[in-house]
Structure formats: structure tokens, C-alpha cells
Design brief:
Helix content: 40-55%
Shape: extended
Number of strands: 10
Structural class: alpha+beta
Number of helices: 11
Number of domains: 3
Distance between the termini: 75 Å
Strand order of the largest sheet: 4-3-2-1-8
Strand content: 5-15%
Largest sheet: 5 strands, antiparallel
Radius of gyration: 29 Å
């Protein structure tokens, strides 16, 4: 029996069309992200994020996949690479559900439009996109709250101060990740004592020596060879000291000086709220299609021209 009839095909297409803009599906085994570009009478067009490859998923092949589910389930580990996108898409249907190990035919239990392979638009963003978005949110918050200097923080309400801290932390963390990736790529391009110049600055290869002791046996043998008393370099091993504390009646205060450092720890980030706020800003920018929007665009172009002139002059 072919369950991929006109009604079921229309329902699957409808679920695909309802997937939020920017959301992606992951292939079940290889975890390749892809988005749904369009649907048609005979296919669903998808685009893979890691290669920008477009690929049609044919209705006929969905029917073949459906026939293979005639027994009621298919083990995810048995999926072939070419079948994985079909499995991810069909999991959106009202006719199927996914347990820990299989795709299961279960119309009574399935929830149309939901899938463990579906990643929200907020979560699907790449690290550079997240840095970009967090920086925009932080810049908007600084502008809205009119934060001119650090002294103005004492007049900020607690909720806003918390958001300011969280966004600054997220920008720093994201920028560090992007910077590390850029550093590794630059090291491939930089020769010894070479400098590379960009519009905003200059970088060069720098080498620092980092030393760490060799194994204990080698170090102690070298000391003995030169007549150096071992006691000069032997110290307390903290790991071994903690073991002693755990198995004896030795008190912490006997061997440790204890102090407290008080700091603010970020314990949670509401990515959905951030993304929703970002979409609101994007919608407002998009609405600037009148004279005010054109004036703003002209002003930005003028700023860019002045920056270009200043950089060229230097």
C-alpha cells in the first residue's frame, strides 16, 4: 500500500512550507544541516548549508521510503547517506514519529511539524552570525540606554544591567571563538617576521617559548648528575594533598589558606528571546523605506567615505 498518496503528499508539503525561515533540518546520522527552499507537485527542494548544494527530494522516492517502512519502523543506523534527507523531511509528517533508534509509522502519536532533526532558526546560526547578532543587540541596548561611560551603570535598572552583562559576555565569548579560527588561518599565511596589513590594523607572526618540566625521573636524574639536592625543587603536590585530606583527619585549615572571590556568573541565556528581539530590529530596519530610511542610508555612506579617506591618508 502506498501511503504517500495525494493527501499525505499535500500534508508533507504543507509541513515543509510551515518550517520557520532560517530553521534547518539535520540528516539523522551525518548531521548535515539543510534548509527547505521550495516545494512542488513532484519534489521538495533543499539546500545544504555546508556546501550550498541544492538537491531535489522526489515524491516518488518518498513513496519508496514509505514502502520500506511497511513493517512499521526503520532503524536510523541503517539509513544510507542518500536516504538521510528523506528521513529527516518525512519526520515532519503527521504519519511518522522518531524514537531513540528508529523512524516509526505512528499516526496516532506523531505531531506534525515537529521533529528531533529540526533545528530552530536561532540555533541554526553559524558562530560568525551569532557574533554579528549579539553585537547588534548590544549596540542597540547601549544606544537605547544611552550608556556613555561606565559611571552611568549605577543609574541603570537591574534588568537592563543584567541584559547588558549577558550580551557583553556573549559577544566576548563569540568573538574569541571567531578570533581563534581567524588566527589559525592567518598562521597558515604568515611567514617568519612577516606582517599582513588590513584596513583596520596589522598582524605579524609572534613566537613565545613555553616551558614545562620533563617527567620526574628525567629531572631528578639531571639534578643528581649535577650534584643539586632534590629538595631544592621538590614541592607539595596539590592533587596528592587533596587525597590525604579525604582519607585522614587532617583539616583544610591546617594546609590551606582560604580566600573568597566574589564574581557574577552567567548561568543562562535565552537565545529565543534574543533572536525574537533581533527579528524585531530587522523588521524595523526593513520598514525604513521612506525618506528617513534614505537619509539614514546616505548618512552611513558619508561616514564610510570619511573613514575610507582617513584610512587612505594614514
Amino acid at each position: 500500500m502506498d501511503r504517500m498518496n495525494d493527501e499525505n503528499w499535500a500534508e508533507l508539503r504543507s509541513q515543509c512550507e510551515r518550517v520557520s525561515t532560517g530553521a534547518q533540518l539535520l540528516t539523522p546520522l551525518s548531521e548535515r544541516p539543510f534548509g527547505i527552499e521550495a516545494t512542488a507537485d513532484d519534489r521538495i527542494l533543499v539546500r545544504f548549508a555546508d556546501s550550498t548544494e541544492e538537491r531535489p527530494l522526489w515524491r516518488e522516492q518518498f513513496g519508496v521510503f514509505d514502502e520500506q517502512l511497511e513493517g512499521g519502523a526503520m532503524a536510523i543506523d541503517d539509513l544510507q547517506p542518500g536516504v538521510e534527507p528523506y528521513a529527516a523531511v518525512i519526520s515532519l509528517s503527521e504519519s511518522y514519529t522518531v524514537d531513540d533508534e528508529s523512524i516509526v509509522t505512528a499516526p496516532d502519536d506523531a505531531t506534525g511539524g515537529e521533529s528531533p532533526f529540526l533545528v530552530s532558526a536561532a540555533e541554526a546560526r553559524t558562530p560568525p552570525e551569532r557574533v554579528h547578532d549579539d553585537a547588534i543587540l548590544l549596540a542597540h541596548l547601549v544606544e537605547r540606554l544611552e550608556i556613555d561611560d561606565l559611571a552611568s551603570l549605577d543609574s541603570m535598572d537591574t534588568d537592563s544591567l543584567t541584559d547588558y552583562y549577558v550580551l557583553a559576555s556573549d559577544v566576548q565569548r563569540g568573538a574569541d571563538g571567531v578570533r581563534s579560527a581567524a588566527r589559525d588561518e592567518l598562521l597558515e599565511r604568515l611567514g617568519p617576521d612577516q606582517e599582513l596589513h588590513g584596513r583596520f590594523g596589522t598582524v605579524r607572526r609572534t613566537t613565545r617559548e613555553r616551558r614545562r618540566p620533563k617527567d620526574d625521573e628525567t629531572v631528578l636524574a639531571a639534578l643528581d648528575e649535577h650534584g643539586i639536592p632534590r629538595e631544592w625543587v621538590l614541592g607539595v603536590d596539590r592533587d596528592k594533598l587533596d587525597v590525604v585530606l579525604s582519607v585522614t583527619d587532617l583539616a583544610d585549615d591546617d594546609v590551606y589558606d582560604t580566600s573568597e572571590d566574589v564574581y557574577v556568573q552567567k548561568t543562562a541565556v535565552d537565545e529565543d528571546e534574543k533572536y525574537s528581539r533581533l527579528q524585531g530590529l530587522a523588521d524595523r530596519i526593513e520598514d525604513l523605506e521612506n525618506a528617513d530610511g534614505e537619509a539614514l542610508e546616505d548618512e552611513l555612506e558619508a561616514i564610510e567615505d570619511r573613514l575610507e579617506e582617513a584610512l587612505t591618508a594614514n
